[in-house]
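Student: I would love a firmer grasp of how sequence relates to backbone shape in proteins. Thank you; the sequence and its tokens follow:
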Amino acid sequence: MHILSARHHGGRRPDLVQGLMKRCALPSLAVLLLAGCASASAEDAAGACDRHVGQAVIDIILGLAVVVSLASVVWLYRYFRRYSRFMRRRIDMAMTIARRTDCDVASLKKHIAEIPSHSTVDNMRSIIASSPLELARKNDYLAHLDLMDRAYVETLCASAVANLTATDRKYIICFLLRMSTADMAQLFNVEPETIYIVKYRIKRKFAEGVSLPF
């Protein structure tokens, strides 16, 4: 009986194992399929994640590039605006200085032209008195200077068609004193040839046909 029972149980054990294997086959296959799908999905998800991360990084880089470009454009615009304002201020300052200089020069020329002749005569007296000329000639020039008609000197200088400088007036007084070329060259510390050039230049400042006493 035991033997038959053993045989009986021994004969059913392979069938039980086969049954269990059949029963477990489908779930196992399903689990394997699910695992494969899950693995593929995970890989796809990882790839998609990587693609999203890469795209996000690219978007960030492009955004930063746009921001930097805009910042550069704004900086250049502000820089050139400041530079333009600076250059305009420099140009305005230069124009103001130029106008002021022209005005000062014109005022100076007008002032020189309006200097009375007697002031020039007084200046020439001081110049001759302190000059290194010989005492005899110096005293002779001073004596003639004291006798000079100052109104005539003023009228003569006023008849010029061009403005006479203070130096021109001093030379005119020397010419009226009949001062020698050597003495004038020593008095004004110039070369004797310069005196002839100065006389020619002064005569050009008077109208043609005017009789000059020098």
